[in-house]
Write a structure and sequence with these properties.
By secondary structure, the chain is an all-alpha fold. The chain is 76% helix and 0% strand. It has 15 helices and no strands. α2 runs parallel beside α6.
Length: 368
């Protein structure tokens, strides 16, 4: 019993902030399937996500209460600091689900406020870390997870926009404030992604160096696309906004093109990694058939870690954003893509969830 208590205490102490990516991923896949008119799947994922979010919030609160010094230490280490932004995005995703499935705008508004305050705190620590480090060192630390800065910023705008629409608040200043968050996210993407491109394409990159968070290179423009499409459809219908609407639509289409262009490379790198890393000799047939099975199955070939959820969110977001862009542009052909890609997103989500459960069970057994 004492050993179990020590194990739980250590689990809280070392809680990985990236686990909130599970909430991000489950939420956006749920929202995507609601848009695809599969309400049963969407609502089931919504209920699961409420459980995930509640459990993770309790663990995070316990860590803040019992191991505050460890949390502060994490926030002062740049690669760990931006992982806390998954809490911001996860909270906004839950808020969006509450608006869509329950019309619980009051609770969603509270979550939006919590997310905004958390975003300000995280950005403060990230900027402090950057200021205290050398420019060259910061450049070396930039990776896929860095793009959580963009995703979290745009998620503030996305939930804010949904709340404005759900509560029928049509104040121009409120729409403009949320639009600024969205536009800032796009500008940040244009600033950060060249550093990542330099890392991926102009430096030696072994299969083992590829990480699931690099999928956010696609996930960031995908959430920009989703939010931009929502803006185009819900901006105030007044002449003063026509120019902004046109600019927003063009940026949104550009973001979707950028996100789409990342997909072949990311799939190739995933396959390359999953068929070679920690695989002695030739990869077994089941791995060659569908490499992502390693996220859930196999003994020596099991290939899961908490950051694996960083792959699921972009895949689900691409489904949701393409559906939204199809509505905003009136393009029926665009709506065909998510009808296939959405099921791929659900499959990757399922395998990653099995991998998570397997990891938790292994941790539980080791505590006995």
């Amino acid at each position: 019993m004492e050993r179990l208590g020590t194990t739980i205490s250590n689990g809280i102490k070392d809680f990985h902030p990236a686990y909130f990516a599970m909430v991000m991923a489950t939420g956006i896949v749920s929202i995507a399937f609601e848009a695809m008119a599969f309400s049963c799947i969407a609502k089931t994922l919504f209920l699961l996500n409420l459980v995930f979010y509640s459990i993770l919030c309790v663990i995070l609160a316990a860590r803040l209460l019992l191991f505050r010094s460890n949390v502060m230490a994490d926030l002062k280490i740049l690669p760990r600091a931006w992982l806390f932004l998954t809490f911001v995005v996860g909270t906004n995703t839950i808020g969006a689900q509450l608006v869509i499935f329950q019309h619980a705008t009051t609770l969603a508004s509270l979550l939006w406020l919590i997310a905004l305050i958390s975003w300000i705190i995280c950005i403060y620590f990230i900027l402090s870390d950057v200021i205290l480090m050398r420019k060259k060192t910061v450049r070396k630390m930039v990776n896929g997870a860095t793009l959580l800065i963009i995703v979290s910023t745009v998620s503030i705008a996305l939930l804010g926009l949904r709340l404005l629409d759900a509560t029928a608040i049509h104040a121009a200043y409120a729409y403009f404030a949320t639009w600024i968050f969205w536009a800032s996210g796009f500008a940040l993407y244009l600033f950060i992604v060249p550093l990542i491109i330099d890392r991926l394409f102009f430096k030696p990159l072994e299969p083992g160096d590829w990480e699931a968070p690099y999928w956010i290179c696609m996930g960031a423009p995908a959430i920009i696309t989703l939010t931009g499409s929502e803006f185009v459809m819900h901006m105030p219908a007044v002449p003063e906004w026509e120019d902004i609407r046109e600019i927003t639509l063009r940026i949104t289409i550009l973001a979707w093109v950028i996100g789409t262009s990342w997909i072949p490379y990311q799939i190739f790198m995933d396959i390359r990694q999953l068929t070679t890393v920690n695989v002695a000799g030739r990869a077994p047939l089941w791995i060659k058939t569908f490499p992502w099975l390693r996220l859930a199955f196999g003994r020596q070939h099991y290939f899961y870690d908490p950051s694996s959820w960083s792959r699921v969110f972009p895949v689900g977001m691409y489904t949701a954003c393409t559906l939204s862009l199809a509505k905003a542009t009136g393009s029926a052909s665009l709506g065909i893509i998510p009808q296939y890609w959405g099921w791929f997103a659900l499959l990757i989500w399922s395998l990653t969830l099995i991998g998570t459960m397997r990891s938790v069970i292994s941790w539980r057994l080791s505590s006995r």
